Amino acid sequence: MTSSKLQPATRRRWRGSAPRLTPYLFLLPVLVLFAGFKVYPYIYAAWLSLTKIIKGQTTFVGLGNYGRLATDPIFYKALTNTLIILVTQVPLMLGLALLLAVAFNSTLLRFRAFWRTAYFVPIVMGLVAYGILFSTLLNSHHGLVNFLLESVGLPRVPWLADPVWAKVSIIIALTWHYTGNSAVIYLAQLQSIPGELYEAAEIDGATAWQRFWHITLPGLRPAITLTVVLSTIGTLQLFDEPYVLTNGGPNNATLTIGMYLYQNGFKYFDFGYASAIGYVLTGIIGVIALVQFHFLRERQA
Questions:
Q1: Are 274 and 49 spatial neighbours (Cβ–Cβ below 8 Å)?
Q2: Contact 248, 261 (CB under 8 A)
Q3: DSSP state string for 6-62
Q4: Which residue among 79, 99, 115, 284 is buried most deeply as judged by most CB within 10 Å?
């Protein structure tokens, strides 16, 4: 009797909780895939960063890989190269993107749809494909760029053979590839700024520069925050362009942290050290992103 009375109550409770459980059942495949392909690799990489292969055996070395990293001159060289590219290329790219977005939003520009598409197309090109394109264009002996320089009486430039010019080549390639993407983001934000603000400012006698400084830039701050953080994260993880254009040379002048991680993991098979580099890079990205968010939020306030 007691069992037969409890069964209907149990069924009622199950029917009541079923609607609440249904969304989680639909999410279960995604959660399993996320755990298998995201969470587990992060945890395993953390474990690897605390180990070292000694005589074919994986040996726990604690923070030994991190201690080695702290005294590794090549790591500091790669970090310096990455930061130089970061502080040069990101402001240049975002400044150009801002100017392009303002131009694309102007009613004075004819064929605006064509120009928007033309500047956005480079982002569609594959990273390796456009790296090969620029390695051909910037070839010191047979490149089109040097041919054009010579045709106007200028000397050849050792784009990929000189340490300074190799960095410049990577900055040029990155700027060409990503400027259009940031310009489209700025353009979308620009079109959300009410036109009445510009009309009122013009009636009050504000110049074009004053309208840009006091209306356009404040209206673009959310988009600027987004592009600054994303561009910084992407540049700190830079790999494809230096790998294809210069392979980190000459003399490690374009070696980035991403390339150094790759070399240790897949060239020297030192997976423990490569994992330590990856986690240090993650920490650097996290700290810089937090500082940027804090600074830009303070400016917006």
A1: no
A2: no
A3: HHHHHHHHHHHHHHHHHHHHHHHHHHHHHIIIIIHHHHHHHHHTTEEEETTEEEE-T
A4: 79
Q: By C-alpha distance, which of 164, 118, 260 is closest to 172? A: 164
Class in CATH terms, 73-300? mainly alpha
Cα separation, 102 vs 81, in Å, equals 32
Instruction: With H, G, I as helix, E, B as strand and everything else as coil, classify residue 72.
Output: coil
Amino acid code (one letter) for 221: R
CA–CA distance, 222 with 293 (Å, rounded to integer)? 11
Q: HSE on the CB side for 200, CA within 13 Å?
A: 6
Are the C-beta atoms of 129 and 218 separated by less than 8 Å? no
Angle in degrees, CA 174, 261, 277, rounded to 5: 115
Helix (H) or strand (E) holding 300: helix 271-300
CA distance 277 to 232: 18
Distance CA 230, CA 293 (A): 11
CA atoms of 275 and 133, how far apart (whole Å) = 32
Reading the block at residue 48, the tokens are: 């690897």
CA 55-59-62 angle, to 5 degrees, is: 140
- Average pLDDT across each block of 10 residues of the chain; the chain has 301 residues. List them in order: 53 60 82 89 91 84 91 94 94 93 80 77 80 87 89 90 92 91 90 86 85 87 90 91 89 93 91 93 90 71 49
Cα 116 → chain centroid: 22
Burial 99-119 (b: 16+ CB within 10 A, else e): ebbbbbbeeeeeeeeeebeeb
pLDDT tens digits, one per residue of 55-103: 778 888 889 999 999 999 999 999 999 999 999 999 999 999 999 888 8
CB distance 289 to 282 below 8 Å: no
Please state, in angstroms and rounded to a whole number, the distance separating the CA atoms of residues 37 and 215.
45
Report the C-alpha gap between 31 and 101 in whole angstroms.
39
